[in-house]
Amino acid sequence: MKSISELVDGDHLTAQFLVNGVTKGVTTASRTYLTVNFQDASGTMDGKKWDIASGDEDLFVPGNIVQVEVEVISYKNSLQMKILSGSPLSQENIDFTRFVPSSPIPKAELEKKLNAYVASLKDPDLHKLIDYLVKLHYKDLLDYPAAVRNHHNFASGLLYHSLSMADDAEALCKLYPSLNRDILVAGCLIHDIGKTVELSGPVATKYTLEGKLLGHISIMQAEVREAAHSLKIEGEIPVIMEHMVLSHHNKTVFGSAVEPETREALALAMIDDFDAKMNILDKAYAGVKPGDWTQKVFAFDDRYFYLPLYTDKKD
Amino acid sequence: MKSISELVDGDHLTAQFLVNGVTKGVTTASRTYLTVNFQDASGTMDGKKWDIASGDEDLFVPGNIVQVEVEVISYKNSLQMKILSGSPLSQENIDFTRFVPSSPIPKAELEKKLNAYVASLKDPDLHKLIDYLVKLHYKDLLDYPAAVRNHHNFASGLLYHSLSMADDAEALCKLYPSLNRDILVAGCLIHDIGKTVELSGPVATKYTLEGKLLGHISIMQAEVREAAHSLKIEGEIPVIMEHMVLSHHNKTVFGSAVEPETREALALAMIDDFDAKMNILDKAYAGVKPGDWTQKVFAFDDRYFYLPLYTDKKD
Amino acid sequence: MKSISELVDGDHLTAQFLVNGVTKGVTTASRTYLTVNFQDASGTMDGKKWDIASGDEDLFVPGNIVQVEVEVISYKNSLQMKILSGSPLSQENIDFTRFVPSSPIPKAELEKKLNAYVASLKDPDLHKLIDYLVKLHYKDLLDYPAAVRNHHNFASGLLYHSLSMADDAEALCKLYPSLNRDILVAGCLIHDIGKTVELSGPVATKYTLEGKLLGHISIMQAEVREAAHSLKIEGEIPVIMEHMVLSHHNKTVFGSAVEPETREALALAMIDDFDAKMNILDKAYAGVKPGDWTQKVFAFDDRYFYLPLYTDKKD
Amino acid sequence: MKSISELVDGDHLTAQFLVNGVTKGVTTASRTYLTVNFQDASGTMDGKKWDIASGDEDLFVPGNIVQVEVEVISYKNSLQMKILSGSPLSQENIDFTRFVPSSPIPKAELEKKLNAYVASLKDPDLHKLIDYLVKLHYKDLLDYPAAVRNHHNFASGLLYHSLSMADDAEALCKLYPSLNRDILVAGCLIHDIGKTVELSGPVATKYTLEGKLLGHISIMQAEVREAAHSLKIEGEIPVIMEHMVLSHHNKTVFGSAVEPETREALALAMIDDFDAKMNILDKAYAGVKPGDWTQKVFAFDDRYFYLPLYTDKKD
Amino acid sequence: MKSISELVDGDHLTAQFLVNGVTKGVTTASRTYLTVNFQDASGTMDGKKWDIASGDEDLFVPGNIVQVEVEVISYKNSLQMKILSGSPLSQENIDFTRFVPSSPIPKAELEKKLNAYVASLKDPDLHKLIDYLVKLHYKDLLDYPAAVRNHHNFASGLLYHSLSMADDAEALCKLYPSLNRDILVAGCLIHDIGKTVELSGPVATKYTLEGKLLGHISIMQAEVREAAHSLKIEGEIPVIMEHMVLSHHNKTVFGSAVEPETREALALAMIDDFDAKMNILDKAYAGVKPGDWTQKVFAFDDRYFYLPLYTDKKD
Amino acid sequence: MKSISELVDGDHLTAQFLVNGVTKGVTTASRTYLTVNFQDASGTMDGKKWDIASGDEDLFVPGNIVQVEVEVISYKNSLQMKILSGSPLSQENIDFTRFVPSSPIPKAELEKKLNAYVASLKDPDLHKLIDYLVKLHYKDLLDYPAAVRNHHNFASGLLYHSLSMADDAEALCKLYPSLNRDILVAGCLIHDIGKTVELSGPVATKYTLEGKLLGHISIMQAEVREAAHSLKIEGEIPVIMEHMVLSHHNKTVFGSAVEPETREALALAMIDDFDAKMNILDKAYAGVKPGDWTQKVFAFDDRYFYLPLYTDKKD
Description:
Chain A is an alpha+beta fold. Chain A has ten helices and five strands, in the order E-E-E-H-E-E-H-H-H-H-H-H-H-H-H.
């Protein structure tokens, strides 16, 4: 069965999709219709249900997985589905990973790497604290995306991003020996775990009430502080880790509560930025041919990026 | 005995002062001397010890209270002391309030008002939470200033400021009935309690390590969160109070972690700003005569303020 | 008869509305049609006249009050009217207050309160000046809204806002005795009167040429200055009042010509901001249920506001 | 007799200067002394009176013209006077122009040019309005500087600057025929007349109370408005001229009350900026040799300017 | 034959246009159609081809000149064409100037003026350098527009703008004798020549790859530097000219690589800005009647401009 | 012999130093004296020559290396020299590296590494271009610092920084395979070579005229362009390298001429920033003990940095 990214103008198919969003419209001839945003692991596409059947409004609800018969057409240079009919699917026993983009590295491999990194932390307080926090959110940390939209927005994206940063940290600590490797790696592992409270989950990801009112940075700093109290860890380590969480967006204009005031806090913020930007470019360049330009990229002030011809010759 | 604010050019006196700060200098003739910043409840003044006696460097140490014989002279339009001699005082049994500016309202009265406000909160969760937080920091909350320098920088200034805001809140809730009085008053009472961790204390106030690396806003939000967990309070109240703490500087450029997203959070931030600004003007206008201008006021982008002639006619 | 805010999908009715605006469109089938924005005291709604009858383009003109037969339908989650037919109404003897949102407090009551505030000003120059300015614009001051769109945009909104600020001023002067009550109240009463020149009137409010080229702040300062010359008032009072008018948007980035340089000018600007923001939130929260969020609020940088569950329990 | 700009290290002279400012200091040996800033038409220089004679504090008062015997010495790469003695001079019958830098073009010539420009305005309302405003401030307009410090800060500098702008306007109107010459020239003539109220006068120039609280832009717009009322001029001309006054600093961040919304208002603001900047560079380049750099120039964000070698070859 | 700017609602005509751009759409009835942007020397207009004929997608390609039969209709207050049919035209021997807006001054006249200005430069190095650079891009300099969209976007617009600035320079150098006329005129002539590399050409103008990655400022500075090396010109002249090119957008926020640090560099940037702004207003005011306002003008932060009534009386 | 960094209060010594800067002062007793800033490879210190001997003003000239007899004293918490006498040294045959801080890695090793990196570039055009540019500035590239003050301001600092970045590039390309290693390494090697024109040299480093008027970014882009023309390299490689040079300060507010529009240009800018920041912290932390704070760091908006206690435990 074709995935969304494989569809072409003229396709006619029956398939199963996750409903991402729905809006209701009226034609100039005063007929009501539905615009449904469908998703599978390969991408998303809008569909139009011109004649609303009874039951359609209960069927096409965000978060539902539905079975539909559709035709694919081209509209204003984009593909769109004409929905011929839709029917409900039992939501149980459905493998959600079919409908959510997944990590380029298998979850099991990410999990193994995570545990190895935690085990590598030598300072007893640091190890105890990080181990506690990782275990506290273990399941969600393995499943959550790193963002609703911006970067690493796929299942396990949060963990993928954290480990990719830990890899950067290891490589750079070899080149800059004044950086403390364990502190920096620990920061990479936990800096974004607050997102498991800020976001609703890996499917049809939304901000939670706590996410909107507090933000993942404040949530996580409070968790580090409370963990240290529970574990009776005193001294500088918890304060340093709280500081790294609070400052990991670098400038306050980018969302930090305070700006980095230790070498490792600064390095953490810069590595986070580098890894996020590389992933944003992966997404922006997807489907672009050497010699062409991306669409406007929001994270770069709507700048366009060029894919040089030398990209071809790399292998 | 004259206080610092009463000294005039030509005075010669023996007195007791708090040492606020010390620096060492060298004259053009290569002699070393000390510049000592003295403080009492009425203000501060610099003194010069031109001939350093043995023991002087151990005596003039920030935080010490010392006995000195001085002459007051005028230098570059400011008064300055010439220190003739100094001697140590036993630091025990000294009444610190003689050396630190004090609140315009007696501490006992502030304490009573605080307890009345806490008692007035009707929602059981809200009352339990605020009562717990106030009691947790009770002693410091009664003694701390609201800032190192900016506003309400006197003993009990933190409480004075919090209660003054609560008074504003009460008055405005009568005029804007859509404001929730209890939530807003609760916010006024606890919003700045994190300063008892951020600052070192009421005498020779400095930022602590936690204060610098985390800031009072993040410290207090974490405390509210941990308190709610300890007290097993669920539902919205703790999240709302955390949000009010995090957003009480209004814009993130002024230090908020998130910007106000409820009516009461917005009102809290605006009341905090109003009360702080009125106190800053009290300080700026101190000693200015009607028809004259203040010095540059840092909190107002170095603007000068005018004291109108009508000020005279008020009573 | 149902008001606009009471209409629901499927209604069919004959009613009278104010025409707020009109645009002409063309369907994909190349037929021309009209989009008419209708208004009554309860709100506004778009209507579509698909078949343009002769006379329709003269009938549907902004500022006209018309009689129409319409059907209400739902389009893209909003209601919309299908205009079946329209006919002219004599514009005379129509009670305009039926078509413009009105003040929550009756105009007569506002007028009485205004006169009491003016009468309460004790300084003879101040009283004479304020009395003159209020009388000069008396009729418009009673009728005008405070803005085209932003806040207090209802009939008598200008006066409602000015008096609400005067109430705030009275309450705060009791808590901050260093504030001069008469100067501050006077500032509240006149600060926005320039809007009676800046805006076209209470119905179908627009900016005038003077409004666009000069702005209400500059217009009013010039009026205060000219009034003082006419009344031969010398000394500081007129300059102080001009300064308060010029600085009542606080920062120049928000439209002040100069920034506040007296305590009362600062307080005026902060009270203006507080009262405007509370009114903006009233509008944003209108129709929102506890536990839900508002739409993006333009005046708060497109932030959303949350209506907490405790809102329910207030009464 | 040497002027201040002609003094060199080692000079010993008796001369008459204007006292610009005075501060009192104390040496490390606890002796008091005075620092007096002297001025004549050629520039300013600081002097030190190490031994204060009786009467010195009454003599060296800003605004006084005094006779002094001084020695010139070099201190930190600048020249400075050692004041040996000073004596009072009768302030009457002193020609102030000896002590204030003067315009490069004689005042009489400027006056003639001003009258010619006023006479050249053809629209009757425009002519009447400008003629009235110029006559209202005639004496001060001939004498005042254009600023305390920034640009054209010499006697008649205000008029010099206004006429220089009128010349620019004439030249550019020939190249851009869509510009209205009379409106633009009128704007050049009156845009800064408010400075005669904002500033204290041509000698020892300071801001007045009205200047600080209102600013010359608001003062002048109010005057244009009041003049139009007095002269019973209706229609657009006064509003347009008020707009040009209010917008002549272009962006509001540079002090405009509104931003230019007519072609002539925009041209006025750009010509004002050009003429001011050229004058600021004249001052910055004064005394700089080709191949060298100026000091930091405040008006250009503390940038340095280079004087190219080709400057030499110009004649 | 009517030009695009002369068309009115209801016209039916056969004409030749340049295709500026094309997008494909789908009606609510799922039919595909084309939106074609047509251009001639007088302006641009959108057309709709509702029924796509075979060959239409090859015919309506940006850069093509086509023959079409169209009807003109009004849609949302703008005119639009309904394309009845289209046919190809041989692209050879077509006079492109019929399809591109042209300079108000004939190209031959501009060319003569250019050569006169180059010939007027007296310093041998300066003359040699400018002559070389002008000749290097001679043909393009005569044909290119000054911009894709912003200002002087017509054939020969680049040269028209450069010479208009040279005229300003001559006029202002007479009024400000400290300006070096030859340096400033030379700067006017070459400052924008980099646009002949940055832009694709006078028809259907686009940014080139070099244009996007480097920008005309950097391109031109490199050309000046390379030219000086080729011509073996040493000393300051080339560096000064490079500096003028690099700084001609004045502030770095407006695109300068460095900010002006010579008098002539500053004057060049200010003249460039003035000439561009006057041209932008010409475009904004086109078609506006005295007493009316322009559309929002992008270059002025979306401000509207007013066309005063006095505009009528100018002649 | 003690180096500057080893001096303590009370030292009396004869030594050779580089003169970094000189200013002339006058004591309150009107005696002239010299303040001389001395430098050796270990640091800098001010000295005072209270009695100016004949010849002193020719001796103490920036760039000279002199022999002096001095006493070290403490003044305002800093050490300072009292210069007893000075005498000239033949400037020939002096080993300048004794007076300039040197690279932590020997120059010979850096040179070997540079050549290896150049040799590793596989694309023929890229290799030819980089090889040409490196050879063109070979000697200076081995000797120059990376900045006057900011970061890597030691002999060979430019090369040290470029190679450190190349190391980062290699490490990160392994973790992010979509990055083109050769293009990125090439960018690291040449991005800052323009500093060999912008700065005066490794001793008493200053900005050159070209440096101030053009900046190293523009200078280097022009060199890349000219080199490509000389070497007749066509296609994308030179444009891409020019783009990387122009954009290597990332945002234009930080000095880029254009902002990065390829993945490698973005990575180059971020690596440059990371390496510079790590070096700035090395300098800021120099001499700070674990548990203490640095001075204000200019490059971090005057923030202070904390050196955590865990720094102790690293080895």
